[in-house]
From TrEMBL:
Entry binding sites for K(+): 228, 247, 249, 252
Cofactor(s) the protein needs: K(+)
Species of provenance: Dechloromonas hankyongensis
GO molecular function terms listed in the Swiss-Prot or TrEMBL record: hydrolase activity
Name this polypeptide is given: tRNA modification GTPase MnmE
CDD domains in UniProt: trmE (cd04164), TrmE_N (cd14858)
């Protein structure tokens, strides 16, 4: 239960904080014409830009800007919406916002405009999430996929699966009315073939959504290893910039340093860490603790090793401490000093790549391997998706598979079959928000930025 009242007129600065040519304040609620009149002395023509003075309570002018009135239900939220497009200075924007609050609006919570748009049926949940994901997109590919979801492509795909589930359920209901003939009935309607097709389609959408999730959140890659093996040099090489300090002194890096790069549109969050070793240096010790924390929350660890010495006992010690679930690539760095060629090869415990961060050798092998580990294989028609969507799709897949094994059983239990189909449909409904609990909605929208 939220204590915040959800109704009422809300206002927020919609543009990014800081200075800008133009700044926008968005207001959503009901009966906003009097509000507009009180602020400007004008009654704006719907959906036209009206030049107006935005007045303070004492009649002085705060700013002179454009006023746009979107009467309900034709607006972003489906309510009355007013937009004040003023000059984009932080002080003038704050003064304008304060004036809106004086006039009876309250500050919008994060995501509250989008939440209202969702509740008023302007978009479904997957589309609302796509709005936030578009704003957060780290690469152009991610942005393109987000727009695809925003325009309803993901929702339509889910809708098609849903329709097929409804058809199958109707078929079962009809069959249940004629219990003697159930098997023949299902066979005549090709229920088996349709289930199989549904499974294929679900698998395909799961795959596209998985790619979308990858585009959205990318991969967290941590560089780990003993001091001086070249972790910071590798970060700099991947980022194409001198971000981290590199010296021949062991124990140079203390704070974890991060940089987001992209490979074929996939955001990779690379984290350089302090070299792992036993040390009496207090500062370095803290750095090493931080390294382990970063390692534990990453998706992939690149374990760097000096190509001249190979995997040492100290490296094996590090390896034994790596979490089981973590994907790992062993990197033999400094091949230029070892007289070895850049290559990728399989070792008993995973893939290894020999390269030189400093001499820029073997870097493409590493990039390709990172994409492979990420599971990236598709560049077209991806829709942006989140972990939440993948879980719902996986659940739907489980129930459809269960439905199939029921129907293929020796004595098919039709009630059970129908129930599995219903559960599959419910799982899909969570994606679009048809069956989504209120508290989950709260969590989803609270992660949006303010003014969205
Ligand atoms: N100035 C401004 N630009 C913006 C937004 C905004 O709120 N204000 N948006 C904020 O995200 C996005 C555009 N989203 C919008 C979505 C729907 C409607 C709207 O008025 N819909 C009506 C009418 C549709 C029509 O005329 O075709 C409706 O759905 O009934 C407006 C903006 C991006 N650019
Ligand atoms: N020849 C050669 N030298 C390298 C290579 N990579 C790194 N080095 C050198 O090795 C030294 C250590 O490199 P760093 O990148 O600072 O190593 P690090 O693993 O970050 O070290 P710490 O931060 O102390 O843990 C520097 O002198 C680098 O120039 C390489 O591929 N070839
Ligand atoms: Mg370093």
């Amino acid at each position: 239960m939220s204590v915040v009242k959800r109704e009422g007129t809300i206002a927020a600065i919609a543009t990014a904080p800081g200075r800008g040519g133009v700044g926008v304040i968005r207001i959503s609620g009901s009966n906003l014409l009097p509000f507009a009149f009180a602020l400007t002395g004008k009654t704006p023509k719907p959906r036209y830009a009206t030049l107006a003075d935005f007045k303070a309570a004492d009649g002085s002018t705060i700013d002179s800007g454009l006023l746009i009135y979107f009467p309900n239900p034709q607006s972003f939220t489906g309510e009355d919406v007013l937009e004040l497009q003023g000059h984009g200075g932080p002080v003038v924007m704050k003064m304008l916002l304060a004036r809106c609050l004086d006039l009876g609006a309250r500050l919008a919570e994060p995501g509250e405009f989008s939440r209202r748009a969702f509740l008023n049926g302007k978009m479904d949940l997957a589309q609302a999430e796509a709005v936030a994901d578009l704003i957060d997109a780290a690469t152009a590919s991610a942005a393109r996929s987000a727009v695809r979801s925003l325009q309803g492509e993901f929702s339509r795909a889910i809708g098609e699966l849903n329709d097929e589930l409804i058809n199958l359920r109707m078929l079962v209901e009809a069959t249940l009315d004629f219990p003697e003939e159930d098997i023949d009935f299902l066979q005549a309607a090709n229920a088996f073939g349709r289930l199989e097709r549904l499974q294929l389609k679900l698998a395909e959408i799961f795959d596209r959504a998985g790619q979308g999730k990858l585009l959205q959140s990318g991969l967290h890659v941590v560089l780990a290893g003993q001091p001086n093996v070249g972790k910071s040099s590798l970060l700099n090489r991947l980022a194409g910039d001198d971000l981290a300090i590199v010296t021949p002194i062991a124990g140079t890096t203390r704070d974890a340093l991060r940089s987001t790069i992209q490979i074929e549109g996939i955001p990779l969050h690379i984290i350089d860490t302090a070299g792992l070793r036993e040390t009496d240096d207090e500062v370095e010790k803290i750095g090493i603790e931080r390294s382990w924390k970063e390692i534990e929350r990453s998706d992939v660890v690149l374990l760097l090793v000096d190509a001249r010495t190979g995997v040492s006992d100290a490296d094996r010690e590090i390896l034994s401490r790596l979490p089981e679930t973590l994907q790992r690539i062993t990197i033999y760095n400094k091949i230029d000093l070892a007289g070895r060629a850049a290559e990728r090869h399989d070792e008993s415990d995973g893939v290894a790549i020999s390269l030189s961060a400093k001499a820029n050798q073997g870097m493409d092998l590493l990039r390709q391997e990172l994409l492979r580990i990420a599971g990236w294989h598709q560049a077209e028609d991806v829709f942006i998706a989140r972990e939440r969507h993948l879980r719902a799709l996986a659940l739907a897949q489980e129930h459809v598979a269960a439905a199939r094994s029921v129907v293929e059983g020796f004595v098919p239990a039709l009630e059970l079959f129908a129930e599995e189909l219903r559960l599959a449909q419910q799982a899909l409904g969570e994606i679009t928000g048809e069956f989504t609990a209120d508290d989950l909605l709260g969590v989803i929208f609270s992660r949006f930025c303010i003014g969205k």
